UniProtKB/TrEMBL annotation:
Segments passing through the bilayer: 181-200, 252-273, 285-307, 348-367, 387-406, 427-446, 500-519, 570-590, 596-616, 628-648, 747-765, 786-811, 823-845
Taxonomic lineage from the root: Eukaryota, Fungi, Dikarya, Ascomycota, Saccharomycotina
Membrane topology of the entry: Multi-pass membrane protein
Protein name per its UniProtKB record: OPT family small oligopeptide transporter
Principal place of residence: membrane
Family: Belongs to the oligopeptide OPT transporter family.
Subcellular location: Membrane
Record's keyword terms, sorted: Coiled coil, Membrane, Peptide transport, Protein transport, Transmembrane, Transmembrane helix, Transport
PANTHER family the UniProt entry points to: ISP4 LIKE PROTEIN (PTHR22601)
Coiled-coil residue spans: 77-104
Taxonomic source organism: Candida parapsilosis (Yeast)
InterPro entries tied to this protein: Oligpept_transpt, OPT
Keyword Protein transport: yes
Pfam families in alphabetical order: OPT (PF03169)
Amino acid sequence: MGDHEYIELQQLHETETRNTSESKWSLTKSQLLLILLRLGVISDEVYQSGNYAIHSLPKGVEYIIGVIDHMHVSEAVEILRNALVEHKNDVNFLQEDYHLLERLVHSIPSDDREDKANVAIEDDASTRKFHKNKTYLHIIDWSLQSRLEASLIHYHSPYPEIRAISDPVDDKEIFVDTFRCYFIGFFWTFIGSIINSFFVHRMPNISLSSHTIQILLLPCGKLWEKFVPNKRISFGTVSFDLNPGVWTYKEMMLSSIIYSCSAGVPYSIYNIFVMKLDRFYGLKWVTLTFQVLLTISTQFLGFGFAMIMKKVCVYPSRALWPTILPTIALNRALMNEDANNSVYGWKISRYMFFIVVGSFSFIYNWIPSYLFKALSNFNWPTWLDSSSIHLVNITGTSAGLGLNIWPTFDWNILDAGGCLTIPFYTYVNRYIGSLIGFVVILIVYYTNNYFTAYFPINSNKLYNNKAQIYDVHSILNEKNQFSNEKYQEVGPPYFSAANLVLYGANFCLYPFAILYQLVTEWDSMKASFVSVWVSISDAFRSKHSESSYGRYADDPHCKMMSQYEDVPDWWFIAILVVSTSFAIAAVVFYPTETPVWGIFFTILINFIFLIPLTSIASTTGFSFGLNVLVELIVGYAIPNSGIALITLKAFGYNIDSQASNYITDQKLAHYAKIPPKAIFKGQLISTLINIVVSLTVANWQLGNISDICDRHQKDKLSCPGANTYFYSSVQYGEIGPQKVFSGLYPVLKWCFLLGVLLVFPCVWFKNNGPIRLARYFQPSVLIGGFLDFAPYNLSYFTGGLYISYIFMYRIKRDYLLWWEKYNYILTSALSAGVAFSSLLIFFTVQYNSHEISWWGNTISEQGIEGGKLPAVWKDASAAPGGYVGLRKGHFP
């Protein structure tokens, strides 16, 4: 083609002979091959050779071809023009695809042209750059390609990630809402809840992830299909088939969603541990009834919020939720045997690819996890001098900030930032933020700001004025309440440099995220608030004035989902009312020191932040909680009460967290075409099962493991989460933010103002900066990079940056068909292999301490990194008066 592209307004080779399989469409074989190339059915090599026999095609492919064949060019042009407007600043819309749409629209032939058959368009350097292995980016047949791109956008999805894991057609006859589906899903929810609840207090924890469970669901479904007799079971008016036939993709997907909805441990478990354990508050009134009231209310308040967020984060096509895509990709790989089409020479099916990679990951994980642990924490710079505090501060994995060109060979660490799931631009923004945070922490530490040079540089613990871990009991009376007399003797707790910067970034992020999102995405935010208001008002009407999908009724996936009966809004409202009642009962009938208005206040805070937080997470994959903000506000509103703080913190954090959890599951169902009522039932019952199991396990642990939450507990059940929960309740509850901000760390209160002020230059750059940079500039994510410290550091994200660049940028750009077919299978296989392997390693060789002692397992734990030498620069005992910090008699 040289330096020009040509528009051919008429079909190529109109006299070309069509075989019988092509006769259903008025398209030539050349045109069909171009369509198949764009849909990822064939590769560029096959397209160029033309040697492909078009026989039976997938239903989704045939559907798109039919749409293209019957679409008028004028309709296509209108769709393309609307898409250019809608996706102008959409960072998830591939840039080369956007350029293709621009060239198609700008090349519309005019009636006064003498030559309508061949119109030359300049092919600039930026366009040629993206043409590698992407023949479809050349305009070969203008009419066909205009209809092709319009069909993908309007009748499937504008995003290749979604086209890779979903179909443009749906078969309502596929079994989904079956007894066996629920039984298998609830069974693994029960098993998974036991394991996850037991090991959540271990450091590092062990869990059965959704990826792992998906592997177990398949044989369960197949065994049920083969051995369980098909009988009709009746219970009154309810009847169902015990074994309706072949185990289906939708059943597999619904079972996966049932588990993923309750895969985590209820946040209130931390409340129960902190309240009941003698080493914490040791409260005797924390009965099982109180635990049930607290846990049900915190878990289900978010459920009610999910109702009003469907039109904001489920129905819109722009709400991708990139972190959930591997779940669907894995299901498709396990259930759908795809044809072994060659993709850049790769003929292996997705399922076999999963088996091969998963097996490799399972075997390989034994090396960094057991045989050669130095490959996991590959802190090789510290091996040069393990006693150098400055070297460890900068490069250390365990005690430092983790600056290391290649810090690990362990997939569990490489994937800490979701390197194969979140978009590359998100990962880069976050990593840049982490690098800036790294520099800020070093400046704070080496200038000894707020005495940080006397403490470890990267710790999430609190320290006293002698640089020892803060003993919170030293400032509490016999009733575990704050004692000002004891406090004036002991003094306040101090942050490490990283922890101080992390809290400052948190306070900066909250106002910035809301204001920036409102300013830059005002139209979508306005539409979101309108949608929320419509959802609320519709919930109180007997008849809705329009489709429940509102302005998204024409979206192809919404159209397919509209075939299924939606969940009545009053179901969600009933759950919201009941869970709110349980929350009120928990604080009224038990001495939680918490006023009733506190419950409604946390609900209001979550409602305000819900739209911007979920909007950010649904497009970028980046999310953050409201726990720090709630700690701050409650600390001011209810001073000197750690119990009130952790009570409201459970609501303040968990409402939005659970709402996002339920919303993502509904989005999974949206992509997989699972009936909404089936999802509702599955989510509701699995959450109840998870609550019952988690409370049972927690109370058994509290009553039978005497040293649980001790730093040296023999089974590593040291409770890092519960300890952090307790320390924060003392810092912001018992002591209170007034003391922290007024005398100890006054700089922190200015971080809120800094967050507001940063909005102005960031908005200016977004609107006026270099187009290529401004398009991918995500300052909320960048500030979020500051949160990747204390106790984590750069070593958890550096290796993932390289992998993200290779797979989420280069391969996605240059080998899109390979990426669409294998990328999400790759991350699922690697994660599943690690999960199975880690469980086996723990129960077979680590639980009974069968460790291998050799250089490869000890070198990374030498000196300061292994805790054998103090991880501090300055000696607190050499400070004036023999202690650091504020002088006695001047404590805030």
